[in-house]
Amino acid sequence: MRVDIVTIFPTFFDVLDISLIGKARGSGLLDIRAHDLRDWTHDRHRTVDDTPYGGGAGMVMKPEPWGEALDALLTPEAVLIVPSPAGEVFTQPTARELSAEAHLVFACGRYEGIDQRVIDHYAQSHRVRLISLGDYVLNGGEVAAMAMVEAVSRLIPGVVGNPASLVEESHEDGLLEYPSYTKPAQWRGEDVPPVLLSGNHGAIAQWRRDRSLERTERVRPDLLPEAPGA
Ligand SMILES: O[C@H]1NC=Nc2ccccc21
């Protein structure tokens, strides 16, 4: 998978050089590149924003630099992802969908966002998706893009060493993950649940399922299968 990220803070994505994503980049499984939007400006101040038509606080990102950057980076099959609080909420099914794509281009907006004409222009020729991380306010799209790149990349075969570890995870089966334990069997007077030491795989699977349902019911009842809209 190829991933292009356009941002005014390209060094923000240096962190992608480490850990699993870094290894996958090295092995060619992932081709992730961060680009500085200002490379597509031509004035002395490398201007990327201006005051909003209609007035109001804040600044809006100008369409020209975005047009030049996206013309340079988009391929016909690319999905243009615009992190935005006005977008669909990013979920594990979204991550799974996007992990099947060949090319993702993230347009990270700052300030009050990107001139709407950029989104409308590319929607005529490409699949464009506005995606929100959730109902809270960030200063720009970079943190959202980072979260999405990690959630999507780890689903690509070969990126995460043991694919089985992708299955028993929170939200993979639609429920929250059961609690996990490792050695020592006793710690500060607390014992590991005995069933986990029993070697009875059927009982262990049942215990884990019960804990997963219990936790989901307590913390995220909206995820339960019979919940409306689940
Ligand atoms: O305001 C944030 N809320 C959720 N997602 C976002 C994505 C990009 C920019 C800003 C946000």
TrEMBL record:
Q: Which UniProt keywords apply?
A: Cytoplasm, Methyltransferase, S-adenosyl-L-methionine, Transferase, tRNA processing
Q: Where does S-adenosyl-L-methionine bind?
A: 109, 133-138
Q: Could you name the domain of life of the organism this protein comes from? A: Bacteria
A Gene Ontology molecular function term for this protein is: tRNA (guanine(37)-N1)-methyltransferase activity
Does the entry feature the keyword Cell membrane, yes or no?
no
Cellular compartment(s): Cytoplasm
Q: Where is the tRNA methyltransferase TRMD/TRM10-type domain?
A: 1-225
Q: Which reaction does it catalyse?
A: guanosine(37) in tRNA + S-adenosyl-L-methionine = N(1)-methylguanosine(37) in tRNA + S-adenosyl-L-homocysteine + H(+)
Q: Where is the composition biased (Basic and acidic residues)?
A: 211-223
Which region ranges are annotated with the description Disordered? 211-230
Biological process terms from the Gene Ontology for this record are: tRNA N1-guanine methylation
Q: Which InterPro entries match?
A: Alpha/beta_knot_MTases (IPR029028), tRNA_m1G_MeTrfase_C_sf (IPR023148), tRNA_m1G_MeTrfase_TrmD (IPR002649), tRNA_m1G_MTases_N (IPR029026), tRNA_MeTrfase_TRMD/TRM10 (IPR016009)
List the PANTHER family hit by this protein, alphabetically.
Answer: TRNA (GUANINE-N(1)-)-METHYLTRANSFERASE
State its role: Specifically methylates guanosine-37 in various tRNAs.
Q: What is this protein called?
A: tRNA (guanine-N(1)-)-methyltransferase
Instruction: Name its species.
Output: Microbacterium invictum
Question: Which gene underlies this protein?
Answer: trmD
